[in-house]
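dude i think i finally got it to work??
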Amino acid sequence: MDRPLLEVADLVRAAGDAFIERSRKWITWKHVKVLLAIARCRTAALGGHLDECTRCGHRAISYNSCRNRHCPKCQTGARDRWLAARRQELLPTPYVHVVFTLPRHLAPLVLQNKKLIYDLLFRTSAETLLEVARDPQHLGAEIGFFSVLHTWSQKLDLHPHVHCVVPAGGLSLDHTHWVSAPERFFLPREVLRKVFRGKFVDALKPSLP
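look at this
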């Protein structure tokens, strides 16, 4: 794979110090640590090892990765492997995209109780999809899906939400045949919203002191 003309690491090395200096009022050591890792990733600063071709004997130095979970260079490989594994699981049917989002006024609560809130978000969104899909008034089927948590918006504001990738259909309740969703309609949005809100609030109340 060809190296891109410009990488995030190039930007960090060129403007990182000035950015850190301008941001002294809010930036923390954790932020600086991430920027430092990205700047050093796969450079001599982290050391390296010698690779040798077993056929022709050609040798080349490979510099070590930072392995920071925020580094785009390190995470690209992990992302590609994850996507390849998910492609192997795809069914021969259309898919739909459903998003469950928490309201902005819960942001302070989320920051103080991340594991609790994210667990509730995953659980109640999954329960909502399964319950509404099983209802004979809607799809009347048992569905499967996977969910991916996003915690920030594109503007880097706290914005907890889960993306659910769902086959547009499921097994009949007696497991005898496939039930396809209508082409232009999967599950009613207002019903999903109401059921999710109720489940999340009911689960949240006894979980907090």
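The longest strand covers residues 158-167.
im so relieved honestly
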